[in-house]
Amino acid sequence: MNSLDQLKQHTVIVADTGDIDSIARNKPQDATTNPSLIAKAAQMPQYADLIQEAIKSGRQDVAKLSAGTDQKLVNAVLDRLSVNFGLRILQIVPGRVSVEVDARLSFDEAATVEKGKHLIRLFAEHGISSDRILIKIASTWEGIRAAERLERDGIHCNLTLLFGFGQAVACADAGVTLISPFVGRILDWYKKSQGVSGYEIEKDPGVLSVHRIYNYYKRHGYKTQVMGASFRSADQVKALCGCDLLTVSPSLLTELSASDADVPKRLDSAAARTMELERVTLNESAFRWTLNQDAMATEKLAEGIRGFADDLESLSRFLNTLC
User: Fold this and answer.
1) What 3-state class would DSSP assign to 9?
2) Beta-strand (E) ranges in the chain?
3) Does the first or last residue of the chain, that is N or C, have fewer Cβ atoms within 10 Å of its Cβ?
4) pTM here?
């Protein structure tokens, strides 16, 4: 078996892309998207039909409002576009697709809840069950509280832009379905902070972060799943073999499928359950203090939200020229 097939024996592999053609080539179980990926894919000519359909449906949505505006139209088209990409992806993958809530709502609990429910309603119009959708929300305190409310209503959530252990603890305590710790971005920060070109894979800060979270979850019996994300190398992916899920870019999936290197299991739930790991409890003030004390997590969370928001703004301007 090639390296990718070996990984699939122990871990659910998820495609991290908005490029539907690459998903079809790699045949993953699930797929994830984000504003950056959608913005890039939306400007590919092969997806022009998805944009035109989003504009048409968005106009119909706004026409139902008593007072529509240009911004409301663009927002409606953005929602429809995310759903349209999700619908096309679900024709290919047998599992779930993750669809992200507007990053500009990352500190607004009520608006995040409403947006999540709205996206689920749009999928339901096309006969898609909420079981096949993961609503992606940034791992802020407000985002985690919104996810907790959505989960109580049967809407499954993927908490993204997760960099710190405190974020992971709060997500598990909130009962979210899945978290996405960003392996590569953690590595990026430490390389820059420490002024080094890289780390041995056994000492990779991003890999070690996921190991810590995974073992903690399994030791304390949390149902929340761990999905490593944002990889910089195939070695990082292989170092997390055994993780619940891994979301991997098409280029790394291709590299793994072309390799016949051995991929031993590195994470094991049975072994984790025997570890002596103290249970942690975080209220809001403790969460915010823990995050504040983790410079890497604080900086990368803020940077990630800004980046996704900027990509949404860029996509909005592009769509505005078409509307």
Assistant:
1) coil
2) 12-16, 30-32, 97-100, 133-138, 157-162, 178-181, 225-228, 245-248
3) N
4) 0.94
Quote the CA–CA distance of 238 and 204 in Å, as a whole number.
12
Rounded Cα distance between 16 and 40, Å, is: 13
| Nearest by Cα to 180 from 169, 188, 168, 192 | 168
Two structure tokens written together for 306: 């800004």
Question: Can you give the pLDDT of all 323 residues of the chain as single tens digits?
Answer: 999 999 999 999 999 998 888 898 888 999 998 888 888 888 899 999 999 999 999 999 888 876 657 788 999 999 999 999 999 999 999 999 999 999 999 999 999 999 999 999 999 999 999 999 999 999 999 999 999 999 999 999 999 999 999 999 999 999 999 999 999 999 999 999 999 999 999 999 999 999 999 999 999 999 999 999 999 999 999 999 999 999 999 999 999 999 999 999 999 999 999 999 999 999 999 999 999 999 999 999 999 999 999 999 999 998 888 87
Give me the residue spans of the domains in the chain.
Answer: 3-314
Burial 125-143 (b: 16+ CB within 10 A, else e): eeebebebbbbbbbbbbbb
d(CA 99, CA 116): 9
HSE-up (13 A, CA, CB side) for residue 92: 22
Report which of 119, 158, 122 is spatially closest to residue 247, judged by C-alpha positions. Answer: 158
Domain 3-314: homologous superfamily in CATH: Aldolase class I (3.20.20.70)
Cβ–Cβ < 8 Å for 244, 199: no
The helix (H) or strand (E) run that includes residue 211 is helix 205-219
Structure tokens at 120: 């689920």
Torsion sign over Cα 293, 295, 299, 300:
negative
